[in-house]
From TrEMBL:
PROSITE patterns: ADH_SHORT (PS00061). This is 3-oxoacyl-[acyl-carrier protein] reductase. Belongs to the short-chain dehydrogenases/reductases (SDR) family. It comes from the Bacteria. It holds the Pfam family adh_short. Residues 6-189 form the Ketoreductase domain.
Length: 309
């Protein structure tokens, strides 16, 4: 097994995508520390791994505080003797438009996603460096962090920030042989289950049936298991040369997101004053970049009525 003898922490792994990541890491031979805020959910996740011969223990605590990060790393070391892999998946949503978003809505999402990723990676990386372990840091991003999404100021900020941190960590941890990558999953989740556009795909997934090819191929939208294989690969020794990357995965598709680069570069003697832009502002207006996700129309056979329609 590719991860035999490795030890992994997966935050937010009681259910959904996080659970799929933990289960795949265990299937590949890793011992896993499960994390969730609900004790019963965490216990069920552990049982789903141990019942098939895998190794797993749980830490029931919210990510964000440094104390939780320390507890996660200490549990891995106390239970299995080391730590090789960290997957930072824990997250919450507080969606609403900018003018209705409260301080609490913003702070809650930033604390769990952004601060939670920072504190757990800091603790794990410190342990790996001190013990000369060429570890693997895998942080979970989102298409929202790459392109924006209506009603998700807090989530977009957190996910964009995570990718920015990953690029910095790849530089800082390179000498220690520790890789840091971001994975951008596109899969059926509790969030996508509420979106009518994805209804046919979610419906098939819930029935245990293959998703229509339109979703898997054209949209790169699939199941949690489709993402989990990439997580396990990035956690392996085979991926030692891959670091600082943002990797999109969903359905039958995998992507390597480009780092932000200038789309257009032009010069104006003396600089770009207000007057210069007023006279020759086409450098901006003719080169506007797209924002948000744009989906093609659903084929007629995959359309479903909106809830309540």
């Amino acid at each position: 097994m590719s991860l035999d003898g490795k030890v992994a922490i997966v935050t937010g792994s009681g259910r959904g995508l996080g659970l799929a990541y933990a289960q795949e890491l265990a299937r590949q031979g890793a011992s896993v520390v499960i994390n969730d805020v609900d004790e019963a959910t965490a216990a069920e996740a552990v049982a789903s791994i141990t019942s098939t011969g895998g190794k797993a223990v749980a830490v029931v605590a919210p990510v964000g505080p440094t104390e939780t990060a320390k507890q996660l790393v200490q549990t891995a070391v106390d239970s299995y003797g080391r730590l090789d892999i960290l997957v930072t998946n824990a997250g919450v949503l507080r969606d609403t438009v900018l003018w209705k978003m409260s301080d609490e809505d913003f702070d809650t999402v930033i604390n769990v996603h952004l601060r939670g990723t920072f504190t757990t990676v800091r603790e794990a990386a410190t342990y790996m460096r001190e013990n000369q372990i060429p570890g693997r840091i895998i942080a979970i991003g989102s298409p929202t962090g790459q392109r924006g999404n209506f009603g998700q100021t807090n989530y977009a900020a957190a996910k964009a920030g995570i990718v920015g941190m990953v690029r910095t960590w790849a530089l800082e941890l390179k000498k220690a042989g520790i890789t840091a990558n971001a994975v951008i999953p596109v899969a059926a989740t509790a969030m996508t289950a509420t979106v009518p556009y994805f209804a046919a795909a979610v419906e098939a997934d819930e029935k245990g049936e293959p998703m229509p090819a339109f979703f898997r191929h054209d949209l790169g939208f699939g199941t949690a298991a489709d993402v989990a294989g990439v997580i396990a690969y990035l956690a392996s020794d085979a991926a030692a040369s891959i670091t600082g990357q943002a990797i999109g995965v969903g359905g039958d598709r995998i992507q390597v997101w480009t780092h932000p680069e200038a789309a257009v570069t032009e010069y104006h003697d003396g600089g770009w004053s207000y007057e210069a832009l007023s006279t020759d502002g086409t450098v901006l207006t003719d080169n506007l970049q797209s924002i948000g996700e744009k989906f093609p129309p659903l084929p007629d056979e995959l359309q479903r009525p909106a809830p309540g329609a």
